[in-house]
Amino acid sequence: MDLRFLTEYCVPVILAACLVIGYCIKHISWLDKVGNQYIPVIMAVLGLLISIPVTLGAGRMITVETLVSGAVTGLASTGLHQTFKAIIDQTNEKENKNE
């Protein structure tokens, strides 16, 4: 399966912004009422919304492709967070076994 097409749709600025905002949603105490199942949807919508000023700032027109790339990047931030979390948890588990 060739996943190179994903690099066309991933915008690093949007990815970083969604990672930070997603982390805040997850860890700020007064936002605890937001369920984990809603975070990917929030990140997709947020990525789509952030893609609009990023696109206009680059001097390009807003197209369906730019909106989709924003939403895909927002979803990618959720996946990236889960990957980092799994790696960190696995590392911590190995360190605890060595003690």
What is the CA-atom radius of gyration, in angstroms? 16 Å
What low-confidence regions span 5 or more consecutive residues with pLDDT below 50? none
Number of helices: 4
Assess the beta-strand content as a share of residues: under 5%
Averaged pLDDT: 84
| Tally of DSSP β-strands | 0
| Distance N to C terminus | 41 Å
Instruction: Assign an overall shape.
Output: globular
The assigned structural class equals mainly alpha
Helix content: over 70%
Tell me about the largest β-sheet.
none
Overall structural domain count: 1
Q: What's the order of the H and E elements?
A: HHHH
Offer a concise description of the structure.
It contains four helices and no strands.
Q: What does this protein look like?
A:
The mean pLDDT is 84. Helix 2 (12-27) crosses helix 4 (64-98) and helix 3 crosses helix 4 (64-98). The chain has one domain (11-94). It has four helices and no strands. The chain has helices at residues 5-9, 12-27, 39-57, 64-98. The chain has 99 residues and is mainly alpha-helical.
